[in-house]
Amino acid sequence: MTQDALLAAVAGGVRLIELGQPFFTGMPTSPNHPGFRMTLIRRHGDMQRADGGSAANEIIVTGGHVGTHIDALSHVSHCGKLHGDVDAAEAQRGGVFRTHGAENLPGLLRRAVLLDVAAVHEVPTLEPGYGVTAEDLEAAAKLAGAEPGPGDVALIRTGWARNFSDPATYMGKESGVPGATVEAASWLASRGIVATGADTTAYEQIPAGAGHAVLPVHRVLLVESGIFILEHLNLEEIAESGVREFVFVLAPLRIVGGTGSPVRPLAAVAA
Known about the structure:
By secondary structure, the chain is α/β, with parallel strands linked by helices. It has helices at residues 5-11, 88-91, 117-120, 134-144, 167-171, 182-189, 216-224, 236-241, and strands spanning 14-18, 37-42, 57-61, 69-71, 81-82, 86-87, 108-116, 131-132, 153-157, 179-180, 195-198, 228-231, 245-250, 260-262, 266-270. It is 20% helix and 23% strand. β5 and β6 (86-87) form a beta hairpin. α4 (134-144) crosses α6 (182-189) and α6 runs parallel beside α7 (216-224). InterPro entries: KFase/CYL (IPR007325), KFase_sf (IPR037175).
């Protein structure tokens, strides 16, 4: 028998719950990024080997911030500076980031807390353009019976993932999209979390008709606090399970010099 406590816990049975969206051509995409495209470039039967074997393969074209993904610290600057007072223009010289590139994104095996703001308001989905406040997060933490702390991952559920199959509604160009306010971001940053995510395209509040003109929460989290942001999460299954504190598992792609990475986040809970 293993003497390792973590191995022993896994051996006892673990259920994995998906926290991300599937990737498919035509899925909702921020207007600031190129969309996801996938198509077969070789099909079974296009070439058949002498022994009867055949293979198919695809080509994938995508931006680094399309679908469920994580933002690297190179993604946002403020007044020409990245996190840690790094000069953004110098860091990106040559077409890749030599500082804060996506290859430095950490793999995460951390405690996570689901801050279900939609449940706090007793609605399936928050209103378009609603600004999630620090008071909302405090109430969600009370509901969860757990508050995020140093090194944790905090996931905000607005219920907006329910609209993912309807790109126009999900993007909310005219109606707005619910999300965290600067006040809420500061509340999270003060707790020393390592990453935070939400079930929307931009994580933060997008008022009606405003689009992605300004993204002050990204400044607070990425530039000022060095906290990674996850977007386009799907928190419906974990919310329906009733689990609000769990092990969070994430392995970003090591894209050298990039500003983000597609990811497949998972919640590991006792079977």
